[in-house]
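Notes from the 1:1 (GR / supervisor)

We went over the backlog. Supervisor wanted to see one worked example end to end before approving the batch request, so GR pasted a single chain during the call. The sequence is below; no edits were made to it. Supervisor asked that the structure be written out right there so they could see what the output format looks like.
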Amino acid sequence: MSETNPTREDFENLLTESFEKQDFGEGYVVKGRIIAIEKDMAIIDTGLKVEGRVPIKEFGIKNNENALKPGDEVEVYIERVENALGEAVLSREKARREESWTRLEEKFSKSERVEGIIFNQVKGGFTVDLDGAIAFLPRSQVDIRPIRDITPLMNNPQPFEILKMDRRRGNIVVSRRTVLEESRAEQRSEIVQNLEEKQIVEGIVKNITDYGAFIDLGGIDGLLHVTDMAWRRVNHPSEILSIGQTVKVQIIRINQDTHRISLGIKQFETDPWENIAIKYPLGQKIKGHVTNITDYGAFVEIEPGIEGLIHISEMSWTKKNVHPGKILSTSQAVEVSVLEIDPVKRRISLGLKQTLENPWKAFSEKFPVGAMIEGEIKNKTEFGLFIGLEGDIDGMVHLSDLDWNRQGEIVIEEYKKGDKVKTVVLDVDIEKERISLGMKQLSEDKVGDAAASGGLRKGTVVTCEVLVINENGIKVRLVEHDLDSFIRRSDLSRDRDEQHPERFTVGQKVDARVTTFDRKTRKISVSIKALEIAEEKEAVAQYGSTDSGASLGDILGAALKKQDHN
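Structure output shown during the call:
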């Protein structure tokens, strides 16, 4: 082949060779060879028709130009095959970035950690260089706990975990926190393996909260709850511990799944609840001081580590609806009585009122049943009057005990709150704290007396004095018993023609028969008619039947004549 006149076959071979070499184009990473170094630029042949220039600084080389030399093979990214100057536009940084993306995608698919350098702060987080690829590190993913100063972490190679990748958008999100959590979990697991319940260890107080303290046991934290700091009540952990303090603790519980460790220090002391029931028998009076007051009562410490509850119902004999804070105050010294002990639940029920005199018992001793007493009406209710009594207690007069003859609903209207009244003690129930009083018992019970004597019962003939006359009948008074009753018009006579109230006069004495006598309802009914019928029956029984030929008038006349002879 002539050098000056190449054949058509030569051109075809050259073209084929050219196509074989250029199986790449813009947007690809290719291998090139450095053919020269000019000042701060490296001239690179990538097999294109023209060479390209790449700043030496893109290779990460500073103050050592000899590190790159002609003949070295490097990878570059083709941005443009030829620019206006007739050169290829190449980039080492973009080549590194592409290499990094490929490598990172592989690690992301395998959930492997990557190494990077935090180099800048942006809104919401930081930027991380992952060997050419730039990733975003959210602020929440920097550490397990929020940190104020991130300066010590910057510009230092450290491991990260890729959370999300989107090559099309060029987004990478990484986390340093997950790496720390995994490392910590592994460390915690290893430490937990070497710990046992009831083991005694030393730790450093790391943090204090309202409910306890976190103790660093050398890579893992344990919680020392406030209830496990002392047998006595601890209002706040800072009373006993301070941050940075070295403390000896006992491991109470270990949760192998969550790696939570519960600690205690009160376990080093004797449990004051041992033999508590023997030490404080029921009914014993002991002294203590109030440690806490709640809506339902007050807690009293009777010795270090032993607290009992005075329920609001056991505070006062008389103050039932008062807040405990109005009876007792915190730190107050008190004497209490032991009511109940539950060693298993570690509960002691105490009573304050039991150390004071029972006002109902004192009242019953001073005012036995039947005693008269004066008091002020404290309250009126639908069922009676409440009377204030000695000892700041109340007694009740029921409606049925206001008056012998009148209904209580009517009588109670005659009284008002604040009135001073006299009463009689009817009953005292110390256990139920009730006192029954009566007012009607101060007056004579004529109905009761009449019934008790047997002088008044159904069928008794009584002499009555006419008190009032009206068209419906006459009001009369039973002379012997001093009780009032009413004889209806229809009961004034057996003979209908004689059933006229106006035939009677006020003050007139008439005989009648008791037809109704109910001691409970205090109802007394008398009837002249009933007496006449009864007398007629008696006469017929004594003097023979009307069938004998004698008239009823003859029989009654004979009966009257006999009465006159007698």
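Supervisor's comment: The first helix runs from residue 8 to 21.
Batch request approved.
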